[in-house]
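User: Could you check the structure of this?
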Amino acid sequence: MEAIRHMLGFYRQIRASGCPVEEDGDMLLFQWGVYNWGHGETYSYDITRQFILSDGDGEISQLSLTVHFSVTDLLRSLKEGNRWCGSPDEADEFESFIRDHEATRVIETVQPLRTTLAWSRT
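Assistant: Sure, the predicted C-alpha cells are below.
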C-alpha cells in the first residue's frame, strides 16, 4: 500500500531531533482492526510514527496515517492487532511483515472510505 511505503520512507530517511532511536524515542507502529473513533465504526489500517523527547519531560507525540474502510464481515473477522518497529535497522523486516499481513491482502481489494493524517500529543 502506497501510504505505508511513504511513511516507511519518511522513517528511514528523516531522524527526529531530540528523539533518540536507541532510547525508543522514534518508533513506528502498525495497527489494524475495527474501531469507533467517534465518527462511527470503521476498519482502520494505520501506521503511526511515535516521537518521545529525551529532554527530561518525555513528551510523546504521534503522526498517524490511517486508512478507513467500511466494516464488512471479512474485515470484522480479522483479529485486530499491532506491531512495533523500534529502529530504521528493522524497517525492511517491518515492511515485509506489513506487506505479507492478512489485513494488507484484504484491504487491497476494498475501496477506502477516507484517509486521515493526524499529529497529536499524548
